[in-house]
Amino acid sequence: MLADFLEYDFLRHTFLTGLLIGIIAPLLGTFIVVRRLSLIADALSHVTLAGIAFGLFMDKKFALGIAPLYSGMGFSVLGSIFIEKLRDVYKAYQELAIPIILSGGVGLSVIFIALADGFNTDLFNYLFGSVSAVSETDFYSILGIAAVIMLGIGLFYKELVTLSFDEEHAVVSGIHAKRIHLLFIIMTALVIAASIRVVGVLLVSALMTLPVAASMRIARGFKQMILFSIVFGETAVIIGLIAGYYFSIPPGGTIVMVSIAILLVAIGFKRLSMPLKMRKGR
Q1: What pLDDT, in 10s, does the model give residues 21-50?
Q2: In whole angstroms, what is the distance from residue 211 CA to residue 249 CA?
Q3: Among 55, 151, 208, 239, which has the highest number of CB atoms less than 10 A from its own CB?
Q4: Residue 200: which domain range?
Q5: Sign of the C-alpha dihedral computed for residues 249, 38, 49 and 17 taken in this order
Q6: Does any domain span residue 143?
């Protein structure tokens, strides 16, 4: 079934991009879930949509040739910076930053989509993913982003883990919390922008959270949770791409449904593995 993905260049680029996304999205998603910041992915995905619509508008009206992938990436990074700034403004109510940015992203998306004369095939592919939309240039851009993300996680793994589980201890230990927070949220923005070609901007947050939710049910430690999340994410992406190609449907929806199926299996497995007395007590 993978023969076509290996034979044709455009499918090979999509498949390899999917494999990269299946690694970096759950990898970063593990830290997002542990830090109880799952809605950040939704907020930044809507800001990314605004950037994509802006790129389509500028190309249609002024023929500037701005690639929607890069305009979406720029908006996403700016949105991540604004979230951090707003978290400083509302120190007692930091969660307010997320709905503020999400609302702004939705508002800008509606405006730029209308200015770009509404929905078209390109925008639909960005919303829900496509098995044929990843160009060679896109692939190398996403490869670069994946390398940056994995390098960042590798270099600051201890700091990110400490901040995720005990921020006060991290600050007392001398960790520059604000810098790490900013780095983390920018990496999140880059992952979301990189994932839109395959998963779709409206569904990318699911790939960052659902595999993690499944792995949390069966993992026995944080590193094991990361490993299981990546395995589940890769499984969902591969099945989603194959189904998208052979059934001519956007892969994003299938990726999400496979992720939900994995989550249900993990929940069922956890429940069945519990001793009978504990199950009765629950």
Answers
A1: 999 999 999 999 998 888 888 899 999 999
A2: 22
A3: 208
A4: 3-271
A5: negative
A6: yes
